[in-house]
Amino acid sequence: MQRRIWPVWAYYAVAVIVFLIDYVSKKIIDRTVELNTESIPVLGDFFIITHIRNSGAAFGMLQGGRWFFLLITLVVVIGIVWYLHRSYRSGSVILMFALAMILGGAVGNFLDRALYGEVVDFLQFNFGEYTFPIFNLADSAIVGGVGLVILDALLTMKQENKPNDNGEQPQEQQTV
User: Fold this and answer.
1) Rounded distance, CA 109 to CA 117, Å?
2) Dist CA 5 CA 40 (whole Å)
C-alpha cells in the first residue's frame, strides 16, 4: 500500500500560513501594546503579553548581529526549499511538515530583521521566579518544527531497526 503524498505546494501553504499568523500577531502587538513598558496578564503571572524588540538570536543572544542573522537565515531558507523539492516524494509527511513550519517561522523573523533590524517578541512565560526568555510565534513554529524533525528521525530509526517481514534483522545488525 502506497502512502498518500501531499503535493509540494501544500507544504508551502503551511509555511505561508505560519508566516501570516506570525506577521499578523506581531502587527497586532506592535499597534496595541506599548514597547518595553506594558505587560498584559493572560494567565495570571504564568503567561504575560510583553512587547519587546530583539536584535539578537534566540533568547537575546548575539545582540546586534543583523547581517549575520540575515545571511544565516537566507542559507537556511534556501536549504529548506531545496530539500523540500528534492525529497517531498520520498520524505515522510512529518519531516516535510516540520520543514514547512521552520520555513514559515524563519521567513517571519527574516522579514522583521530585514525591515527593522530587530524582531518583535511578546510571549512571556514565568515559572515561579524564573522568566523564560520572551519569544514570538515564528520562534514557536521553528522550535515545533525542530521537535518534529527529531520525532521523524526517531521514528525512522525505529522503522530501520525493525525486523523484516521474514523475521530477519536489518542488514547492519546481522552478525556474520
Assistant:
1) 10
2) 43
pTM of the predicted structure, to 2 decimals: 0.83
Compute the residue count for the chain.
176
Output the pLDDT for position 58. 64
**Sheet of 119-127, strand order:** 39-43, 47-54, 119-127, 130-135
DSSP 110-126: HHHHHHHSSEEEEEEEE
pLDDT tens digits for 36-62?
888 899 998 999 999 999 877 665 566
Q: Are 111 and 24 in contact (CB under 8 A)?
A: no
The count of other CB atoms within 10 Å of the CB of residue 138 is 29
How far is it, in rounded angstroms, from Cα 39 to Cα 165?
Answer: 58
The band of 8, judged by pLDDT with boundaries at 50, 70 and 90, is: confident
Closest CA relative to residue 63, chosen from 74, 55, 73: 55
The distance of Cα 127 from the centroid of its chain, to the nearest Å, equals: 23
Greater confidence, 91 or 80?
80
Q: Is 88 in contact with 5 (CB distance < 8 Å)?
A: yes
Query: Active-site positions?
Result: 121, 139
The three cell numbers of residue 48 are: 504575560
> Distance of CA 117 to CAs 63, 70, 106, 112, 120, Å?
11, 9, 15, 7, 10
pLDDT at 3 over 60: no
